[in-house]
Amino acid sequence: MNNQSRINYYLGDLVNHEKVTQKITTNDQIQEKQKVLIMNNINDLTKGSEIYNLLIKKNYINALRKYLVNKFGQYINKQIAVQCGDVYFNIDKYCFTKVRVINDKKPVILKLMNYDRHWSNFYKKHKDIPFDEKKNIIFWRGVTSGSQHAIMPRLNLVETYFKKHNFIDVGFSNISIQFKRNIINNPERNKENNKFTEYALGKVKIPIFLQHKYIISVDGVDKDSGLNWKLNSNSLIIMPKPTKISWLMEDQLKDGIHYIEVKDDFSDLIEKYEWCEANQNKVKEIIKNANTYMSQFSDIKKEKEIEHNVIQAYLNKVEIVS
User: Fold this and answer.
1) Domains delineated in the chain
2) What are the tens digits of pLDDT across the range 154-197?
3) Are 229 and 122 in contact (CB under 8 A)?
4) Helix and strand counts by DSSP (H, E) for the chain
5) Helix, strand, or coil (residue 290)
6) What is residue 172's DSSP assignment?
7) Where are the beta strands (DSSP E) in the chain?
8) How many CA atoms does the CB half-sphere of 275 hold within 13 Å?
9) Rounded to an integer, what distance in angstroms lies between the CA atom of residue 291 and that of residue 111?
10) 10 Å Cβ neighbour count for 177?
């Protein structure tokens, strides 16, 4: 995909409009899901900012503000809409965001928000080994997704396969307080709460992941923050079909071309493993395709230019009224 095509992709529906005027009310800023923050100008964090914690301000608002001040000072008095934090719902506003769900075309995707979590490991040179030298094992570790809507994908994976097969090694890094609270509040699951602690196997560093031929990617509250470096490795990625898109353009990834797709509940994981074991040359081809796909993000100068043009288009096209 060339630079202009990617700019258009991140702009979504906005690319089809010369000018857009939208009204975003206080209610839009404080409802449980759609926390769209209005910055009165690129230095302002006051309006609605009480709904965000310090990490949100640091990783989203401050990162965006720093870039805008440095590169777009001429827009000092312009109002800007920003969606902060994880996204698993339709925003339906022309605003800056890290992630949008696939069927929602209004949010404008940026790379700089929560950049370290999603992209720093992609650009680091982690020690990898050739595919043939890796263990013939499916591997996953990750945090529990605390939000009620996001519990099931990772919980299904771990409950179904935890220590059930010698070729599947899955577990949680830790069990969060929020996760326990949501399980306890679920009448169908609260009697099982005590057993979840056995699923916590501790945090694992990336070099441990890279010892395995097959690495699982599974969404948390929004996208898997490790997907970027996983696709850039010498391991095969196994995951459900993406439902959210970020700067990575997840909906451009193809099953059997860039990764191996499994059902959302991972019920066909063993079947897919058996196919991979019987088709090692095809697996290597898929890994190579994934690496090639990820190479389009490797030129940092080009990446910054694309993002700059995305921001410029938003600032030129969108007007916010009270």
Assistant:
1) 3-119+299-321 (no CATH), 121-297 (3.40.50.2000)
2) 888 999 999 999 999 999 988 776 776 666 566 565 555 556 77
3) yes
4) 12, 13
5) helix
6) E
7) 20-23, 36-39, 80-83, 96-97, 100-101, 108-109, 135-142, 168-172, 212-216, 236-239, 244-245, 260-261, 318-321
8) 14
9) 19
10) 10
